[in-house]
């Protein structure tokens, strides 16, 4: 029994230590993170590995210069220079000299639109870029109600403008989109968030004890999102430019 207990304790310590190390690597330690800080996190950088394309001409925009350099290097390494382009830019400001009206068949975001300072302006930009009949797909979150814990997580993750449940359809209609559909994928992503919530629970408790939880928003978001799972959804939104 003593041996089993020691082994279990050691495993727990190793898991906690690894999670704290991951949290330190994934976050710069800023108490007031900007959207640039958030996208400099380790897990956010991993998203660039998915930018491979499949018979499509893909143009990406990123707010962080380092991400653009990494993406451009990946594009060169995979011989995709004629197929994939990534530029430094902000989806709030997409000048027509670089992004012509009606020049895109589709626009896609994943866990990006929730960071918008002005969601309406961003949707107008997307609408301008799409050709008539072009499709917008957003894989994002919406929330059902407010709580102190949820609001703190959203603020620290620069997601304070995450839309309330039901707001996507209204906002898309107001910005010129039609044929709007929404699918709730919360059940699909719950296993991953459960893993985040369980693995980071002990490090998060220690950080809270030390009053440092605000400096590690990725740890906090993993635990608090799982604890407040019934207050939000992970949704896939599809709309067509009419």
Structure description:
By secondary structure, the protein is α/β, with parallel strands linked by helices. It has a domain of 166 residues: Vaccinia Virus protein VP39 (Rossmann fold, 3-Layer(aba) Sandwich). The strands form 2 sheets. The chain has a 4-stranded mixed β-sheet, with helices on both faces. It has a two-stranded parallel sheet with strand order 1-2. Helix 8 packs across helix 10. The longest helix has 25 residues. The relative contact order is 0.14.
Name the features.
242 residues, alpha/beta, Rossmann fold, four-stranded mixed sheet, two-stranded parallel sheet, 10 helices
Q: Quick summary of this structure?
A:
Keywords: Transferase. The chain has 242 residues and is α/β, with parallel strands linked by helices.
